[in-house]
Amino acid sequence: MATQLHTDFIPELPPLLPPTLRPAAPTPMPGKPKKKLVRRTDRDYSQALRRGFQFGFLLWNLYLGRTFYLWVRHFETGGQAPASTRPPGVEGYLPIAGMMNFKYWLLTGHVPSLHPAAMFLLITFLAISFLFRKSFCSWLCPVGTVSEYMGRAGRKLFRRNFQLPRWLDIPLRGLKYLLLGFFVWAVSSMSADAIEGFMRSPYGVIADVKMLNFFRFIGQTGILVIGVLALASVLVQNFWCRYLCPYGALLGLTSLFSPTRIRRDAAACIDCAKCAKACPSALPVDRLVTIKSAECTGCLECVAVCPAQGALQMSLPQVVKVPNRGRISAWAMAAGIAALFLGIVGYAKTAGYWNTDVPAYVYQQLVPHADEASHPMPGDPGIDR
Ligand code: SF4
Ligand code: SF4
Question: Nearest-CA neighbor of 138 among 326, 345, 295?
């Protein structure tokens, strides 16, 4: 039987070193007495829920990708490969088409007939970002999921992720806003007629096939770029999301208007800094009262590691300071994200707006010759701005 130590009965030993050689006991900071920890009693499910969403969405995307590939192969082989139905969800990978269609809808009041799912998915992710910070990135985005797990692999390999020095980190973070600015400028300078002309061009109709073919027939330069990004994501946490993703930049800017934020109660906080250490966006959570940054992805990792009762939570603004009022639990956040996604996509489906309205014979002509469809330019017929 294992011997059990009863430390309560071990008498206190006299110090072996003379007082001058003993390390000095940490002196409390003047004016900052050590706070007493009131330990959390609730069990945290935020990361289990988040992982469930991440992998559920990743699997759904893999299913979409496979179904879309089979649909493309059917047309490429002249009907010899089995027929498959085109999954409109792949239009989530056409964010520029989503922005163009959103503008078209705002200008004309008509839901576009080509790639409408791109617009509904963009609206869904904007709505999620408005209500729950940039949580699309940390709860749903397949690229974000892969990137997160590459960072974890890096931590296993090197026992840490590296952080770029501040003088490099800040300008690099601006890159994604520059890319976003370029796309916003391109879309904002198009009229409704120009958007319709673009969508009805061969390139616009099979933009999703072009996207798939880019990855299917990727060249050496593409492989090199993806390889460098993958390596960077292993070394630096969320490299792509933090520095380069224009979609994340758009959602981050939207999240600045969100009423929900991570809020820290300085009275309950014991200044252990575990939250800041856990934050994948490297935000100084332990030193702020409210996290307003566009980099906050609502991942709740900071909340998950916080040991103090009521010190850190995602919440609505507190008009009256009552503990837990306005708190948004991980369950509420998960339910909200799911409700927005299923609600908006469900509405588009039941209202008949979800599917792209293109007859099969048009795809029969265009899909096998996708490499011949070039990007329409200003001045091309129907693309006047
Ligand atoms: S502040 Fe918290 S919720 Fe926001 S990114 Fe950092 S860990 Fe995630
Ligand atoms: S994890 Fe952050 S908020 Fe929670 S007690 Fe420690 S420093 Fe305070």
Answer: 295
